[in-house]
Write a structure and sequence with these properties.
The complex is a heterodimer of chains A (about 260) and B (about 180). Chain A has about 260 residues and is α+β, with helices and mostly antiparallel strands. Chain A is built from 6 helices and 9 strands; from the N terminus they run H-H-H-H-H-H-E-E-E-E-E-E-E-E-E. In chain A, strands 1, 2, 3, 4, 5, 6, 7, 8 and 9 form a 9-stranded antiparallel beta sheet that branches. In chain A, helix 1 packs across helix 2, helix 1 runs parallel beside helix 3 and helix 2 crosses helix 3. The longest helix of chain A is centred in the middle third of the chain and has 22 residues. About 15% of the residues of chain A have low confidence. Chain B is mostly helical and about 180 residues long. In chain B, helix 1 crosses helix 2 and helix 6 packs across helix 8. In chain B, about 70% of the residues lie in helices and about 0% in strands. Chain B has a single domain, classed as RNA polymerase sigma factor, region 2, helix turn helix motif (Rna Polymerase Sigma Factor, Chain: A, Orthogonal Bundle). Chain B has 8 helices and 1 strand. Chain B is globular, with a radius of gyration of 18 Å. Classes of the chains: A alpha+beta (about 260), B mainly alpha (about 180). At the A-B interface, helix 1, helix 3, helix 4, helix 5 and strand 5 of A face helix 2, helix 3, strand 1, helix 5 and helix 6 of B. Strand 6 of chain A pairs parallel with strand 1 of chain B.
């Protein structure tokens, strides 16, 4: 049985705030009580293990995003963090200043015109090189490319991308009975900014260089967010692995045949 | 090298390169503290961004007689606590673990250890986790932690002792401590 006084002395010793008398009292107890000694060593191990934790690097794009938001007036409405940016990109602007209303109207009109253009039959669907660029400075306008669908042993799903000014959003619906890994690889001009699941459950994401790996089980929809620094819209490469074996590979949007 | 007080003064006057210097100095520690508190990579990035936008907006209210790092960490901790409490029931597993192509076994072992640490921290109640993070990752004193979290030193000690005890039990359970 380790008393409250002894626990307090142990913690004070670990934190380096024990008095000389307190320290002496503690060590007398520890010398006489092996259980207390083990408990004390285990408490010290907490600090040792936490000290071994690696420092984590923030996303490379974060500093640039902060400076951009600050330059835009430091208003949190225009910040471009993952969740906020996802909301910003996918939902209409909550407030619009009257001075921008007219320009906004024109931008929306041009946007709709651009969308009609890309859906005309003479255009090659899904060819990223032929996609029309975005209009409007706040990434409100997008171009959707043809989605990729797959139904293979172990998994089925659908992935579609939307190209905004600098942002690429990928909507992924995935269904599998057992664990599958979906690997997205992308050009060095593209940064993976993050992922969110629209339903709960177990999944995990790993980022390795220019690859993002999603480990998934069950049925779920995901939104993935990328920043594309290239002048043209770059396709993403996607492969699905079931039981460690590749069962599906494609680029998103699909390559022109 | 310009001292921090001067950099802060320049940033208050609207010098964006001075603000970027503050960002460079504090981005990583703020991000890491947020990461350990919210236990999620993307949320930590969002918290960090919100923190620096608030720092930028509120620089005019900062009183130079206080320590700047306490001021900035107070903002960071409050943002992280708010988000951690909001997220408590929302997401069971959503970590992005940083790794690089061609990682060595040693590096992968470090990732596994980091996952263990994150798991143990995540199991703590937010109030305990915050104190543990400030103590162990930012190496703050009881007083500094109390100032940042807004609680008396006595409460800091009590939360730290409880948090440390819970982590001890978690590490023993996982075979990391005998």
């Amino acid at each position: 049985m380790i008393g409250e006084r002894l626990i307090e002395l142990m913690n004070a010793e670990i934190d380096g705030v024990n008095s000389p008398e307190g320290s002496r009292e503690l060590h007398e107890h520890l010398d006489a009580n092996p259980d207390a000694r083990r408990h004390y060593e285990q408490l010290k191990d907490v600090g040792r293990v936490l000290a071994e934790a690696d420092e984590v690097s923030p996303p490379e794009a974060l500093r640039r995003a902060i400076m951009r938001a600050v330059a835009a007036g430091g208003n949190s409405d225009v910040k471009v963090g993952f969740l906020e940016r996802m909301k910003e990109v996918l939902s209409p602007a909550p407030r619009m200043r009257p001075a921008y209303a007219f320009a906004g109207g024109i931008a929306v009109g041009l946007c709709l015109f651009a969308l009609i253009l890309v859906t005309l039959p003479q255009m090659v669907p899904g060819d990223a090189a032929n996609l029309v660029g975005t209009i409007g400075g706040r990434e409100r306008c997008f171009v959707a490319a043809d989605p990729v669908s797959f139904d293979v042993p172990g998994a089925s799903g659908r992935a579609g991308v939307r190209y905004w000014a600098e942002t690429v959003t990928l909507e992924l619906s995935l269904s599998s009975e057992s664990e599958v890994v979906v690997v997205f690889s992308y050009d060095e001009d593209v940064d993976f900014d993050g992922l969110r699941a629209l339903q709960g459950g177990d999944y995990a994401v790993r980022v390795m260089g220019h690859r993002a790996e999603l480990t998934h089980t069950g049925t779920r929809d995901y939104d993935l967010l990328f920043t594309d620094h290239a002048e043209s819209h770059l396709p993403l490469r996607m492969s699905v692995l079931a039981a460690g074996r590749s069962v599906f590979e494609s680029s998103v949007p699909p390559e022109r045949e | 090298m310009i001292d921090e007080a001067r950099v802060i003064e320049m940033a208050r006057e609207g010098d964006s390169s001075a603000f970027e210097t503050i960002l460079e100095r504090y981005e990583k520690p703020v991000f890491n503290a947020a990461y350990r508190i919210v236990a999620n990579y993307e949320d930590a990035a969002d918290v960090t961004q919100t923190v620096f936008l608030k720092v930028h907006q509120k620089l005019g209210t900062y009183k130079p007689e206080h320590k700047f790092f306490s001021w900035i960490y107070r903002i960071a901790v409050n943002e992280a606590i708010n988000l951690a409490k909001r997220r408590r029931w929302e997401r069971p597993l959503e970590d992005v673990v940083a790794a690089r192509q061609g990682d060595s076994v040693d590096h992968l072992a470090r990732i596994a250890r980091d996952e263990l640490i994150q798991g143990a921290l995540r199991a703590l109640k937010t109030d305990y986790r915050v104190v543990v993070v400030l103590k162990y990752f930012l190496e703050m004193s009881y007083k500094e932690i109390g100032d940042i979290v807004g609680i008396p030193e006595k409460t800091v000690k009590s939360r730290l002792f409880t948090g440390r005890e819970l982590l001890r039990q978690a590490l023993v359970q996982r075979g990391y401590s005998r």
